User: What shape does this take?
Amino acid sequence: MFGFKKRDPAAKLRRDYEGLMAEAVDLQRRGDIKGFAEKTREAADVEDQITQLEASKPAKPS
Assistant: This one.
């Protein structure tokens, strides 16, 4: 009934992913390759969470 008020949990993870990737690029531009690698790994972990979340969603009826 109130499904329109439910938030998409994957949307927050996508925002987190985009933020982590932006930070990673900034670190890379500053020459902090170790920091870049860590942020990229964190972003990959978030991306894995998004994939798992979307795989567990039931298919919407057409």
